[in-house]
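Batch manifest, entry 17 of 40.
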Amino acid sequence: MLTLSSISKNFAGLQVLHEVSLAVPERGIFGLIGPNGAGKTTVFNLITGLLMPTAGTIEFFGQRLDGMAPHRVTRSGIARTFQNIRVFKEMTLLENVLVAMGDRARFSMLGVLLPLLAYRDAERRERQAACELLSRVGLVDKANFFAGTLSYGEQRRLEIARALATQPKLLLLDEPAAGMNSVEKQQLMDEIVKLGNTNLSILIIEHDMRFIMGLCEQIAVLNFGRLIARGTPDDIRADPGVIEAYLGRDHAPEPVIQP
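Output type: structure tokens
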């Protein structure tokens, strides 16, 4: 589905990614992990068109993405969340999702003749679709609350609903559990599992190893901009290169990367 082939990225002479090749399969939940500064968010920025690769290609269902504008990447079927929450805090949850839906409503010929009726019908359908998205992340009961009144974890889930509003085939989640307490993390895990059981594919960056190991079927590991491992959670947990990248040579792995 998504293929990165020998991707490299330089910033003013500093090489952040070194010939990273990665294939994300269709459907399911795929993890991308690594220590701070490993290049994980840079990968997301390259996929979504916020950055151009210095070398290599990115394809999504056979379509080249490298060099494509971010709004065209979104239209191709890729949506993302960010490390820093980006919701409109002075708007309701419903309004936040409606804004993300954009111009999804389409007007029929009858709507051209009867614009008021067409507008009202389109508005009703979009509000219903927005409520369904909020329901998928467990927030429909707060649809008319202002986003700024939500807890940190709830705002994270609202971000996911906004991303889903673009009807993606692939959802990129950049540290979605950052700043959450244990209860919020478990709720988020449950919601992501439900999403992964649909036709949606999910690529997730996360530092919490219990969180990532409990969610993903396959995990890839970056360190200093290089791909050093890929496999199942058990493979990654036992990989000497991963253990060294996270802990150094002289430390035992069990306290950190046990699920």
